[in-house]
Specification:
mainly alpha, 1 helix, rod-shaped
């Protein structure tokens, strides 16, 4: 068959699913870091407020 391309290995759809899974993992890591940062910032602000009273 002339002109027909075959691909051995993962399909394009499989690669897209892997990329989406990786992006989901990265997003979860960013959300976790932001949550911890905001928690620390709020704790610091609460500490400053109680020191002023």
């Amino acid at each position: 068959m002339q002109g027909k391309l075959t691909v051995d290995g993962p399909t394009v759809d499989g690669l897209a699913e892997d990329q989406l899974a990786s992006m989901g993992l990265v997003l979860n890591a960013v959300v976790l870091c932001n949550t911890r940062y905001l928690d620390a910032a709020i704790a610091t602000l609460r500490g400053l407020l109680t020191d002023q009273r």
